[in-house]
What we know:
Helices cover 31% and strands 19% of the residues.
Amino acid sequence: xxxxxxxxxxxxxxxxxxxxxxxxxxxxxxxxxxxxxxxxxxxxxxxxxxxxxxxxxxxxxxxxxxxxxxxxxxxxxxxxxxxxxxxxxxxxxxxxxxxxxxxxxxxxxxxxxxxxxxxxxxxxxxxxxxxxxxxxxxxxxxxxxxxxxxxxxxxxxxxxxxxxxxxxxxxxxxxxxxxxxxxxxxxxxxxxxxxxxxxxxxxxxxxxxxxxxxxxxxxxxxxxxxxxxxxxxxxxxxxxxxxxxxxxxxxxxxxxxxxxxxxxxxxxxxxxxxxxxxxxxxxxxxxxxxxxxxxxxxxxxxxxxxxxxxxxxxxxxxxxxxxxxxxxxxxxxxxxxxxx
Length: 340
Ligand code: AMP
Ligand code: MG
């Protein structure tokens, strides 16, 4: 067991110590505006293998490389197309990951054997500070145990990875709360592989045609190859069996209150007073940004309800709602019940 040090992102000397650990090949949990990442030197293959080991991450699921200056992009990919520059200008720094053909310096562990690499320029000041201070591009998937909800606080990271990694840099709760939007420019037309804080509508406004990968909304057909390997795994799952209920508020309340045995609810603010089962609130109805912000903490809190089934309200799918829906439907193992 390692002793995992907790550093404070508001202290410059703590950022410097965490950066030193990364330069030495260590693993550090870092805050970003999306979720906490488990960072290592992206050009150090052995350090990157450590990420997979600490998380229990399948070796075929590639990592996102984080930068703090657009100039770094040119060192990581074979060429930077004009479409990438347009996206960067609109959405970087921010919650958008861009996939491009990789440069030879990218270790196989990072790209999981693919010939592409995913790159993001985060907006969180502490993420930028540690990338700058270390002088390294940082490979960082979400800092959770594989299969668990992604961490949106330093405490979540400690809970999952304390004792397995060198340090966690505490920069407070994440503002977006869901992982980045992932788009590949290695396909023509560009393809949205994972929805996030930057919406499909926003991407289309910049690029014109953008295809929504079928794995965003649906389970992968058996034997089919995943464009984004992360999409094929069951994710974000609390211990209870989650079932999404599609329909309005009244139908949800009626259904849950008449199926109370060993049941709990994942609902919107204001619903809990009318529910006769233990409930966890996740944002406001019709307010996708608040749902995104609270979803992963809510999924973790469901484990404290001590119930075997959780009925969840089905979110709308426009704007950031598409990302909330994409994560929830995976937490539910694609189990959706349409209410009359
Ligand atoms: P995480 O950082 O844990 O949110 O996971 C990164 C996500 O980006 C996973 O779903 C990966 O499958 C996806 N990803 C990373 N690199 C690539 C790539 N080169 N091609 C396709 N998907 C990728
Ligand atoms: Mg993840």
